[in-house]
């Protein structure tokens, strides 16, 4: 009797716990789903019903009495010349009357002063310039874009560590602005201004976060294919595209944008800032746009969209550039992947796995192809991977 009672009791507890669990899961998913559905409906309605992106008018230009020649970032939307604390003008050649290097890709990684380990992981893996040179004979230049540590107390310690780091690797580009979320547009401007001044010959420019993984061999192969079809290497801005995204007006959001900063109901199309590539001509156009546009909007991807819109450039979707999401770990994915977001601790292991020669040998041929397509459908077309590559990408 007593045993029985205990069993029932246990069962009830289990039932209660299970119910709670299920409820929690449903609630969490519903919230996600709801958010997802609502934001999609909104962006689709802007895209297909309103279908008008004429909002951006000259109110975004800075008034002509504020015009400037060169410099970077904004005080009240105007460019300011932030001083370079670390710079490497000779990174792409061209110093002391020497000829410039034939750079395929200038790779900017947006980093923060304290992220020493992330930078090291990138240099050791996908950002290894010598690897690309040795394996593919291509010239890639990697530099890190930084501001200064926002905390005054830690700044001098961090700066001297950066000094040592830069002494060894010579790849830090730092300007004298606070490295904060709301100064990301300053970092964007730094990249396009540096590129314009010191590496204008680069065929492509990439901007990437320091917590993404780039499958460099696949990227280089893709860029070379574009170059071989001359027309496609121009006017290119490629990544994971956000179309018709509405500004977030909830004050508690990190991405909150007030009406006086951006009065219109939708942003121009832009690519996720986690990682995108532009061709050299587009980089030059963006540079020009930063000279005349008001840069007080602090979401850097959106500012990029505004610059591009002003210059008549529109972004292109590529199925294997991820937005916020992390790509599934599978060789059939590695065969195509370009970027994946959210990698800090597993960069080394992923680099090993993704560049293993068997990835290529096993995905080829009729059977390999068939197997991988099925595998990718299983990985990408299930709802819980909605944040990375789209289901469509499974069929490429
Ligand atoms: C730009 O658009 C805003 C909002 O629609 C409007 O208030 C403003 O008058 C426009 N400015 C110009 C110069 O057309
Ligand atoms: C605003 O800037 C854009 C982009 O440079 C330019 O095409 C346009 O003529 C400018 N408009 C005014 C009114 O200055
Ligand atoms: C840039 O836009 C902000 C917000 O709309 C405004 O306060 C600022 O005066 C503008 N700056 C210039 C230089 O036009
Ligand atoms: C970078 O790549 C080269 C060439 O493949 C290799 O010899 C070197 O060890 C790599 N560097 C690091 C830090 O892994
Ligand atoms: C951006 O950097 C500048 C220069 O250091 C600083 O004055 C400003 O407060 C920073 N802005 C934000 C929002 O952190």
Task: Describe the overall structure.
- By secondary structure, the chain is of the alpha/beta class.
- The protein folds into three domains: 8-50; 59-317, Spore Coat Polysaccharide Biosynthesis Protein SpsA, Chain A (Alpha-Beta Complex), CATH 3.90.550; 331-395, no CATH class.
- The chain has twelve helices and 14 strands.
- It has helices spanning 2-50, 116-124, 129-136, 152-169, 184-198, 216-228, 280-292, 300-310, 331-334, 347-354, 357-363, 365-380; strands at residues 72-75, 78-80, 84-86, 105-110, 140-148, 172-178, 204-209, 212-214, 237-239, 241-242, 270-271, 275-279, 316-317, 339-341.
- An eight-stranded mixed beta sheet has the order 3-6-5-4-7-12-9-13, sandwiched between helices. A two-stranded antiparallel sheet has the order 1-2. Strands 8-14 form a two-stranded antiparallel ribbon.
- Helix 5 crosses helix 7.
- The protein is globular, with a radius of gyration of 24 Å.
- Mean pLDDT is 86; it is low at 69-73.
- The structure holds 2-acetamido-2-deoxy-beta-D-glucopyranose (NAG) (5 copies).
- Residues 57-59, 263 line the site of one 2-acetamido-2-deoxy-beta-D-glucopyranose.
- It is an enzyme of class 2 (transferase).
- It comes from Cottoperca gobio (Frogmouth).
- It is found in: Golgi apparatus membrane.
- Its EC number is 2.4.1.-.
